[in-house]
Specification:
This protein is an alpha/beta fold. It is 42% helix and 13% strand.
Length: 328
């Protein structure tokens, strides 16, 4: 871009949940102000989901909104984080990390996903992105090319996906983006009632956000692999919410095992060592931004390709969800 005569101001971010903060947000705004950005000057978010979230929030806030161009470089950000206009940072509330508690809706002007960047993505980062693809597959009942649903196509194509076959990756990303964009188009601000709309995209995420506050958790027996990546936490959240749904009589008994098997095939954890007791985990969920009137709402799968948001009145099924992902 510089070779083309474009004037740039570069800001490097430490792409971690801890750095996804108001402090980082403020640093970006200060740099934008020092560069004297005007209302038509775009912010270009080049990186993964954390970079896109923080840069997007800065773009939404500076001069009450400047354009943002999302250039995702991870699978997770390509299929999920860069699409839909949700931006934000985490909030450190007295030492408690509250995920995505401060933010804004700010749609990107354009999203540029170059799958060439996936060729250098570490295996663990790549696999973590598959959890969001599985989430979309669990929600998307529409048949694609050949009449196969999203989840069936992923299951059939998984070996080629893991091998990073470019043709298959293009279809994987296109399917997920098309599904999410369709949901967002119908409920951009997540205001739909009756437990539907965009809120369903939070499947697995209430558990996941609580899991991500536990920085000592590792996807392996090696403590050096801690903390869990967002996609790894989402995968665990899918198992936990499926188990919760089974205990509430909403989902078929086989669903948690079906999800666990898919996660294992993706080399993602279906359980984890080091979780606190279930009641302590329950308390971690209290800061979730979907809590209303002090009552927790969970998006739960009713069966494959169907889910709904449910107000939790009885703790026991949720505690069972936590126990389902606890590895002794």
């Amino acid at each position: 871009m510089r070779a083309a005569g474009v004037q740039l101001t570069e800001i490097e971010l430490n792409a971690s949940e801890k750095a996804k903060s108001l402090e980082t947000f403020g640093r970006i705004l200060a740099a934008m102000g020092a560069a004297r950005l005007e209302r038509n000057d775009p912010v270009i978010a080049l990186g993964g989901g954390i970079t896109g979230d923080v840069a997007g929030f800065a773009a939404a806030s500076y001069r009450r909104g400047v354009p943002v161009i999302q250039c995702p470089t991870t699978l997770l950000s390509m299929v999920d984080a860069s699409v839909g206009g949700k931006t934000g940072v985490n909030l450190d509330a007295g030492g408690s990390l509250q995920k995505n508690m401060v933010g804004a809706f700010h749609q990107p002007t354009v999203v540029v996903a170059d799958i060439g960047t996936l060729s250098t993505l570490p295996d663990r980062e790549f696999r973590a992105g598959l959890a969001e693809c599985l989430k979309h597959g669990l929600l998307d009942s529409s048949p694609g090319a050949g009449g196969r649903t999203h989840l069936t196509w992923i299951t059939d194509s998984l070996d080629r996906i893991l091998a990073r076959d470019p043709t298959v990756l293009v279809e994987l990303i296109a399917r997920s983006v098309a599904f999410k964009a369709g949901v967002v188009r119908g409920d951009e601000r997540e205001t739909a009632e009756s437990g539907g709309g965009r809120a369903l995209l939070n499947l697995g995420h209430t558990f996941a956000h609580a899991i991500e506050t536990l920085h000592h958790l590792s996807p392996t027996d090696n403590p050096g692999d801690a903390p869990l990546l967002h996609g790894e936490a989402v995968g665990l959240g899918l198992v936990a919410c499926a188990t919760t749904a089974v205990r509430m009589g909403l989902a078929p008994a086989a669903l948690p095992e079906q999800i666990s098997t898919l996660l294992t095939r993706c080399w993602l954890p279906a359980s984890v060592r080091g979780l606190p007791d279930a009641r302590s985990c329950w308390r971690l969920m209290g800061a979730d931004k979907k809590t209303t009137g002090g009552k927790l709402r969970l998006v739960l799968p009713c069966k494959t390709h169907h889910a709904r948001a449910v107000e939790i009145l009885d703790h026991a099924p949720v505690l069972a969800g936590w126990d389902a992902i606890r590895m002794e």
